[in-house]
Amino acid sequence: MEKRTDKNSYTILFAIGMVLIVGSLLAFAASGLKGRIDENKRIEKQQNILYAMGVNENEGNSAIFVSTDKVADEFSKYITKQLVIQDGNVTQDDEAYLIDVKKEKALAKKEGYSRRLPLFIGEKEGKTFYIAPIRGKGLWDAIWAYVAMDENMVIQGAYFDHKAETPGLGANIKQRFFMDDFIGEHLMSNGSFKGIRVAKGNADPKNRDKTDNEVDAIAGSTITGDGVSSMIKSDLKLYMPYFKNLKNK
């Protein structure tokens, strides 16, 4: 006599039951952890913004964020305004740092949608910083950055990160030797936005010329470098009207 557990229908029902149980458990866990996940995202974004404007705990050649127990206070201390730029309009929004740049880039592909651009204004030691988040594509997956500029769109600091670039090659975009190269680089040239090109065979490997719109590439990471160049040019160019209006005030 065939056992009930030997039937195909039993196997199918058992599999469906397990999927439902496991799915319910995962959904419950995700719901319970949502608050913690959101908090970690907030902390990370605030650390990135602060790092770009030079508020960090760097030692030697290491890139070190403000510690998690200090970041909320430091963010409130140094970030004086959070702005959202959309369709030429500028509004203040104290939660602009929560805007998902990835989603905004996707929505901007739809006809009739004007992308929201977060911009963070920081004050440190009598100097004003304008920090913009940007996002692009590396060799394997997403790359992103927070770039701090002055009123002339000269870079004052940057933090780069990635999802899955090659260790020891493209992944080095988040190393200080690469990020620090951008400090002092001019995004504008003769009144026009030019961006910064991560250049293989750059004629200025020690990066003394800050007006050539180039930094030296990381060996063996041409595609990642091209992705950095592309996201700087495409995303930061969108902020140019804001800076032009800023200078005309």
Enumerate how many helices there are, as a single number. Answer: 6
Shape: globular
How many angstroms separate the termini? 90 Å
The total tally of domains equals 1
Which strand order do you get reading across the main beta sheet? 2-1-3-4-5-6
The unreliable regions are none
Rg result: 23 Å
How is the main sheet built?
6 strands, antiparallel
Question: What is the string of helix and strand elements?
Answer: HHEEHEEEEHEEEEHH
Class by alpha and beta content: alpha+beta
The average pLDDT score comes to: 90
The overall strand count is 10
Helix content: 25-40%
The share of residues in extended strands comes to: 15-25%
Verbal overview:
The chain is α+β, with helices and mostly antiparallel strands and 249 residues long. The chain has one domain. The protein contains six helices and ten strands; from the N terminus they run ααββαββββαββββαα. The chain has helices at 8-52, 71-78, 101-107, 176-179, 222-236, 240-248; strands at 79-86, 89-92, 117-124, 127-137, 142-149, 155-162, 188-189, 192-193, 197-199, 214-216. The chain has a six-stranded antiparallel β-sheet with strand order 2-1-3-4-5-6. A two-stranded antiparallel sheet has the order 7-8. Strands 9-10 form a two-stranded parallel sheet. Strand 3 and strand 4 form a beta hairpin. The termini are far apart.
